[in-house]
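Duplicate of earlier report; histidine kinase input re-posted below.
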Amino acid sequence: MLLERNHNYKANILVVDDTPDNLRLLSAMLTAQGYEVRKALNGKMALTACQMLLPDVILLDINMPGMDGYEVCKQLKSEDKTNEIPVIFISALDDVLDKVKAFDVGGVDYITKPFHGAEVVLRIENQINLRLLQNKLQEKNILLQNAFDELKAAQVQQIQNEKMFALGQLVAGVAHEINNPVSFIYGNLQYANEYILDLVKLVEIYQKEYPNPTPKLQATIQEIDLNFVVHDLQSLMGAMYRGTERIRAIVLALQNFSRLDEAIMKSVDIHEGIESTLVMLEHRFKETAHRPVIAVVKDFAALPSVMCYASELNQVFMHILNNAIDALEMGNGAWRLGTKNRLQEDAVISLSQENFDTTQTLASQQQILNSHGSPQILIQTQHTSKNTVKIIIADNGPGIDSSTCSRLFDPFFTTKPVGKGTGLGLSISYQIVVQKHHGNLTCYSLPGEGAKFVIEIPITYSTL
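Output:
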């Protein structure tokens, strides 16, 4: 109901009575008090009048032909548009049961005939004032809810900032401490390999020049197994090269993931961020006592560089992939049940509908269909016709019911046991994608059929 707050507003009163004399009397009485008065001779006319213009108060007679006041009030209270209109019953009956019934059907007050003008006006004013107070209370509740929502958003943002700062400090420290000794080792491996080759060459020349070693030398050669040492040295040096390369790649992935030197928006390669995140989570994909190894299926389309906050977008990938792994840890998804992963097939079908390269889509589909029977995460990227980029992260875990799915992005909401999750990861992800990048983050899931998260952000950032 809409009640104006300025003093010039005249409250609108609808008077419903099948007796014309009562209508004229009440109309004259209320008009003299400054009210706008409309009249209705029966229940149907009253309902029609309410649909045309909502009254502020209804004076409703009980005993009317066709449709009595009780039925009119029931119909008013059954509709969202009219259920908040205060209804004051008027009747010549002064029986307690009639009053009780009037309140049961939704009436707020009761006036008996013959009525007194002062009493009618006072009861109407009480209802109008009460409605005004209710409206003010409702407005304050809305303001309080908005303030509460803003406070929660600020808390989430503060936690995100603190997490990013802590992560940045950790990454900077780890990268610095590891990078220097690894660079020293990597840089000297080449020289060490050359020195070893020189020594091996010297031994070979010595064997040719002195083919008959002394008994003591012969015993030493057999003891150390010289031939094995010479042949194994190359394999050993290769393994050391690969090990140091791996450490350097991890350090680079840490730096790329955090991007501490890129707090501003930049044009970046989305695939690079995904790959860095996968390196960070590689230990979680390995086989455990509760599940086999998690297969990560990548289907990357050709993407242009995207204007974004790279470190924060990497955080989104991290949160969603972590949730997918946690879901697969539960061990009762489609892969455990031995059923077909329809969700992943649907994801592939959607690619073909976006007019992507048919050969690539069919190849991806075949790869996915051939990998049933194990926990897996599918990561797909798309360049859409809307000049946006889509990143799809799907798993064949246990899935999510609709009631839970609708609350996934609420701050502090979590389905994990106490101590296993804060309920902030997906909320932070939603803020980053929707508020900071003007994109969309949605979840599609059914129980037993896995979950699919779709991140969509514009390629060129707009401040609008």
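The radius of gyration is 38 Å.

Merging into the original ticket.
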